[in-house]
Design goal:
The chain is mostly helical. The protein has twelve helices and two strands; from the N terminus they run H-H-H-H-E-E-H-H-H-H-H-H-H-H. Strands 1-2 form a two-stranded antiparallel ribbon.
């Protein structure tokens, strides 16, 4: 029982990160109709930037240092998001959607190389943020205090995504940029700027989320590949147009991975998680919560 509870807590923590990656993938898809495989590297860039900024030798962090971490993570993520947009924009002008998706995978490795050059190839870590100690669930098992920070950025990202997907002015522009770009241009709005704004938003969110997640693990310049993979899977399994779907898929992926690692000796955690989502996609190819209007537009 203790192993199950500990694995469940760990799975939920990791699943929230996968869900955030899935949500930022959905935001970019909303404006560009492109499934961007490089979004996971924005998390890594924000985490590395914050960890290197604070440096080693800290046993604990002050409130001021936490604010610095959030600001640095968001700023680095923003710059990385803008760089990612301008890496892909020339390809978008001459290639079809599938080729742009492949190009985004190449952009992932470009950003990885830049991250390695700037922050080095050694893994980085941060001490836990200030706050109360872990909440005890059972003997020897508790919820780490850092999980509450991750929960905060997860809830913020979900709320922001719902707003961007709503029927307000911003939501309508985001949707029109992806589905009806010519109509948007007739209203005097350049789709390039709408797409760029989506990359800036996702870059800031991803950078902050990456910085907040570092104390629970370590971050390396090459860590964006697995995050990108799981985030895209969460977004696709959720339906790409439903934030709740990405959340459910991301949490399910994290829990399945954690339980799989716990009960198979760490050998088949990824296989269990990916296998479960393959079953979901076989049953619901368009995603778990895909809306009817999205199916019609496709």
């Amino acid at each position: 029982m203790r192993l199950f509870v500990a694995s469940l807590i760990s799975g939920i923590s990791v699943g929230m990160v996968y869900a955030v990656v899935g949500l930022v993938v959905c935001i970019v898809y909303r404006t560009s109709r492109i499934l961007n495989l490089a979004e996971g590297q924005l998390f890594v860039a924000g985490g590395l930037g914050a960890a290197v900024w604070i440096g080693n030798g800290h046993s604990s962090l002050s409130v001021v240092e936490v604010i610095e971490i959030i600001l640095v993570g968001g700023a680095v993520g923003c710059v990385a998001g803008i760089a990612l947009r301008y890496l892909l924009r020339p390809v978008e002008k001459v290639a079809d959607d599938l080729e742009v998706v492949v190009a985004s995978f190449g952009a992932l490795y470009v950003l990885q190389g830049i991250s390695g050059i700037i922050w080095g190839v050694n893994p980085q870590n941060l001490p836990n943020f200030p706050g109360s100690g872990p909440i005890r669930i059972t003997e020897g098992v508790g919820i780490p205090a850092q999980t509450w920070y991750v929960l905060g950025v997860f809830l913020f990202t979900y709320t922001l995504t719902r707003m961007l997907f709503g029927k307000n002015g911003v939501g309508v522009r985001f949707r029109a940029s992806g589905y009806q770009p010519k109509v948007l241009q007739l209203h005097g709005i350049r789709t390039h700027w709408v797409v760029l704004v989506s990359y800036i938003i996702t870059g800031v969110v991803a950078g902050v989320a990456g910085a907040l997640f570092v104390p629970l693990t370590t971050v390396s310049y090459s860590g964006g590949t697995s995050l990108a993979l799981y985030g895209v899977i969460a977004a696709v399994a959720g339906g790409l147009e439903r934030p709740a779907g990405a959340v459910i898929a991301g949490l399910s992926l994290g829990i399945a991975e954690s339980l799989g690692q716990a009960y198979t000796g760490g050998l088949f955690g990824d296989a269990v998680a990916l296998g479960a989502l393959v079953v979901v996609l076989v049953i619901r190819p368009s995603g778990m919560l895909v809306p009817k209007e999205t199916v019609a537009l496709r």
